[in-house]
Amino acid sequence: MNYSSAWRGTAPRLTTALAMLTLSTLSNVALAAPINKSDIKFIGPLGADMQLKPYQTEHQDAIINSLLPSIQQPTTSITVFGEKLKWQNLDKVNALTLGGLQALKFSTHAERFSQGTLTLKGIEEAQLFINGEKQTAKKQSYELALPQGDHQIVIIAEQVANWHDVEVDFSPNTDIDTLTFSTTEQHGLSAKQLFDATTVSALSISPDGKHYLVAKRHYQDSTGNQANVITELKNDDQQTIYRFESGQPSNIIWSPDNNYLVYLLDGKLTQLNRKTLNLKVIANNLEGASSFAYYDNNSLIFSWSKSPTADSSLTKHYRGLQDRWSYARTTSQAYLLDINTGLSKPLSQGPLSHSIEDFNNKRGTVLLSRGTEAMQAATHPTTELIELNIANANSTVLGQFATFNQAKYSGDDIYVTAGPDFKEGLGRNLPENMLANNYDGQLYLLTDNGKNAAPLSREFDPAIGQLEVLPNGDAIVKVTEQDTIALYLYDKSKQHFSKLNTGFDVVEQFSYSTTRSPAILVSGSNASSPQQLKQLTISKNKATTLSDSQPQEYANTNIASLEEFNFTNTAGTEIKGRVYFPSNLDKNKQYPALVYYYGGTSPVTRGFTGRYPFNLWAEHGYVVYVVQPTGATGFGQQFSAKHVNAWGQYTADDIMQGTQALLKQYPFIDKQRLGNLGASYGGFMTMLLTTKTDMFSASIAHAGISNITSYWGQGWWGYLYSGEASKNSYPWNNSKLYSQHSPVFHADKVTTPLLLLHGDADTNVPVGESHNMYTALKLLGKDVELIEYKGADHQIFARDQRFNWWDTMLAYFDKHLKEQPQWWQYLYPEK
């Protein structure tokens, strides 16, 4: 079995002398050695007067699984049925027999992937868990396969005749399968911690700032891929006053008068009275309804989608490029719902979908956006912004825009977020010979019913994302600022951006009150510290921590140290980056290194965890360099514009130059043991780099693009994304870009071992992109591996697949950069 979720770390340990002596002299011979009893913790008896043991009942597993979390915790004692019991070392146990249950607990550390057999002697009935996962035994012997790092072993003993006879033996498979054992609770960061830890998944603060709703999600072995979510309504003293545990609410909104909370649950739109906690069902049968908001205290405005009847015909007739999207023929319209009766009335109609941007109940108007055609050939469909008068159903077209993201009222004016090319380049801050990257969001203000427009962020380098407007007309914007995600306040009267002091490298979610001095509820994390929930008041610009996952989820955990590393490329541009170091780094040793990048139009942000766990890689003994090459947003328009029509031209140079600068800065990195990896556009970059350099000893491309033309024509977002990445360039007018920048056209130049990873249900970058490269390299006799994840789309979300995916990447690098192929061979044995 594979223990991808194992504890990992390099804290000092009490090493079992006999076991280590035996292991050091073994030569491919499995010889059992008892683990020193002083390296094993003991507690018991648990439930001393227990007449029947769990194995004598129909509920053995349930009983043991309920007890397990208490045993796993790093505590000095446990109180059971009112009796306080202390942990002690097993060698201090003098009893021959004991009633109830007993528990043994110890840690084992593997310097590398190790296999062997753990045998229980003198224990007649027991269950054994490694990192919380129950193991299957053959005559009280357990087969171990442990990746590098720390692993917690727990034994729940139910029947022991004589505790003096109890031993735990370990037999390694070979002389390289070395384990050390101890009672230490300090351990390295684990994959299970990163994925399973409780995190804030949704939050919302009431208009008066006195209540907030927070949803928290976690995973556990017993529920597998299914997340466990609890949503709580809390007051400003952090007391829980209402809790959703089974069904979870969605589309949560607060009434402007602060009296009610409305949400969707089990297909019903339900109203919760904040004072009495009474419930009222407002409406049923709202399938396809979303984006609810209070229009006033008596009515809700919302979007209602309708999908066409399932097509049973033998053919599908494409009416436009959007028909590659499964939802292309679904239409959405705006509706108004009366809270008292549940009656809904349409505000928009026709074959075009209308999206609600904002509304102003004092003016009696709604801002709607829509495409100008149902199906189009244009790379970027034109968006039309209209203002609808609810009373008379008259609508006014405020403009048609080739780039558009969001619009919101600010008094009689309207904020708009869009790319630099909005309104014929109003937001451009570029030389005339450069094409703008419209993924670099800008902020604008429309006045006089859209007749006039002013750029607000042309000199502001961060890229504007989410926009929210305060009652006084100022705006809160969530921005990409270099490799961080930050909140800024835009003061409309002073025309000035000021940063809000959240204390986070990466702001994840935020919600604000509408009080005179607005409060902001915000969740986020830092590169080296996990998620927190905070609240700040804009006037004071100081955050207060409401909850912190560090003490609960990451206690006694080693977390990699971090250092900023920037360099100046040959074009004279500073390229930002950061470096994660293994625990207990010894600069007199040589370490393998991994270089990670995206290279597309977004930077790799500084979140504590995510799909690519840099802290975990460092815990596995790798120096990890994250580089932010030319073309990303958040560094200014000229930096992001170099992404257009480049397809790796600048990015590859920055990665190679950055890696060389890294080696010069950190001489303890072994230049002969460098790995590189990336996903999506980063996967494209990995493939491209294998055709340009041999500085890397192993490369991994996840969901990468090998042929720009086939991605452009077949990927769900291919032609749309290419509208910026390949602006004004097509296979017929710029064949050089589409062919010569495509890695598969240079496959014969590849000398680096390459692992291709892909979800076989990927719609964004079809799996054929990896097949192209795999076919070429196989025919050329190159070292290439292809692994597909069944049913997975562009990202690997499922818990079991995520652990396997993380293991696969580390095992591949262990094989090529550490000369340790055993983990890879265990995961993917040769038939």
From TrEMBL:
InterPro entries xrefs: AB_hydrolase_fold, Peptidase_S9_cat
Every Peptidase S9 prolyl oligopeptidase catalytic domain range: 614-819
Chain coiled-coil ranges: none
Keywords: Hydrolase, Signal
Signal peptide positions on this chain: 1-32
Protein name: S9 family peptidase
Source species: Pseudoalteromonas prydzensis
